[in-house]
Design the sequence.
């Protein structure tokens, strides 16, 4: 008899929940009435368990207690009842943890559609023939005079070219831009997005962020008088390695590249840099959650830090390789990356709040411009995704994808020199 009562009760609840989706305004009241009635019946006839009585004594609403019991006993009820909730609230509550874990391993772009993998000539607002000429100049050194002399002398022989490559082993920071943007042009939303950004399918770039004045003219210089570190470099995925990394040798991983970048910023450009080498990606999906408490502690203990750089390497599909010839040296290409805390389907991701999205975007934009002007072709488009990636810690937060899994350690270390230079251009 008790089983029959319970079964009838479930049928009534399911029927009323389905009806509750109508628009007459009365049926939700029927659901509440039925829940109260079934509460009394089933408490006496079927669900005589201490947990229910404890809930009642603690003031838990009786309808909620019944709902919890029905959920345990009849999973179908849970599914149908959830269907009556607003879709936005249901998804946020049910997927918050899943999204946080997805964030932990989802800044790579290897699984994106081919159209999102195109970081070719259209990454610059430059005619292709001009770009090719500037890249040729990059490949033969940073000196304009050298390029002009080579043009006057005509084509070099193969032997002369080989000799020139050998002589170009030392990086020379470009003294002048190879190209300069004309900011007097009309740079509306479409122009900025098409020339500087690759927007992932997971998100949307809102027009309010694409104000050229906010992107280009925000002062990002650091306090050079600070008595403490100004820049923090760390690695959410410190275990990321390259095609010829030596197992067990951290100096040949992305962590080693971070040390190289930190030393260049210190020795060549006079910044005070802290390089944090903590490893948080033993469980990769939880890396951002795992690193956050330690990062917050470091920033609290070092209030002079203004710039936070999370240095990664990307993962690309197929035989694609992110490398170019810069001054006769094989050099990995890199990409600046922003999380927007905004999903294409549901809008703002409130549990991944970032009050510094505009400032983060200005930082990556200005560094991208410097890269395009001084070393054309070395920077891929700025990549935008839905999540936060711990970029809420400071206004000047940056995530950098330096090369990919199929780059060599040499290519990665070579890339640290132009990267340090363009960071210094913006931060000084």
Sequence:
């Amino acid at each position: 008899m008790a089983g029959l009562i319970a079964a009838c009760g479930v049928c009534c609840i399911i029927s009323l929940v389905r009806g509750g989706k109508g628009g007459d305004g009365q049926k939700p009241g029927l659901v509440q009435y039925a829940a109260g009635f079934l509460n009394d019946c089933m408490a006496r006839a079927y669900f005589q368990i201490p947990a229910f009585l404890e809930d009642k004594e603690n003031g838990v609403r009786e309808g909620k207690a019944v709902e919890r019991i029905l959920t345990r006993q009849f999973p179908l009820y849970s599914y149908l009842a959830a269907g009556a909730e607003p879709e936005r609230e249901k998804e946020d509550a049910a997927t918050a943890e899943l999204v946080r874990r997805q964030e932990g391993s989802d800044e790579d772009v290897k699984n994106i559609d081919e159209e999102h993998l195109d970081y070719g000539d259209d990454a610059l607002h430059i005619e292709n023939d001009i770009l090719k000429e500037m890249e040729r100049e990059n490949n033969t050194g940073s000196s304009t005079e050298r390029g002009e002399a080579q043009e006057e002398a005509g084509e070099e022989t193969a032997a002369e070219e080989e000799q020139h490559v050998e002589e170009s082993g030392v990086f020379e920071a470009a003294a002048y831009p190879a190209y300069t943007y004309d900011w007097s042009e009309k740079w509306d939303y479409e122009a900025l997005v098409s020339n500087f950004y690759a927007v992932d399918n997971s998100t949307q770039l809102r027009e309010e962020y694409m104000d050229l004045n906010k992107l280009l003219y925000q002062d990002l210089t650091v306090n050079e008088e600070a008595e403490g570190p100004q820049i923090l470099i760390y690695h959410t995925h410190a275990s990321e390695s390259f095609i010829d990394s030596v197992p067990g040798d951290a100096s040949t991983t992305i962590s080693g590249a971070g040390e190289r970048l930190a030393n260049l910023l210190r020795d060549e450009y006079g910044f005070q840099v802290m390089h944090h080498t903590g490893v948080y990606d033993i469980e990769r999906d939880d890396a951002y959650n795992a690193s956050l408490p330690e990062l917050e502690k470091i920033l609290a203990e070092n209030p002079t830090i203004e710039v936070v750089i999370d240095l990664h390497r990307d993962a690309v599909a197929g035989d694609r390789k992110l490398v170019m010839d810069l001054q006769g040296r094989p050099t990995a290409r890199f990409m600046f990356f922003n999380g927007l805390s905004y999903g294409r389907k549901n809008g703002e991701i409130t549990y991944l709040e970032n009050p510094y999205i505009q400032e983060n975007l200005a930082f990556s934009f200005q560094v991208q411009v410097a890269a395009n002007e001084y070393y054309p072709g070395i920077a891929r488009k700025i990549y935008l995704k839905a999540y936060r990636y711990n970029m809420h810690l400071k206004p000047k937060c940056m995530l950098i994808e330096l090369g990919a899994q199929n780059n060599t350690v040499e290519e990665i270390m070579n890339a640290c020199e132009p990267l340090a230079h363009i960071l210094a251009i913006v931060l000084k």
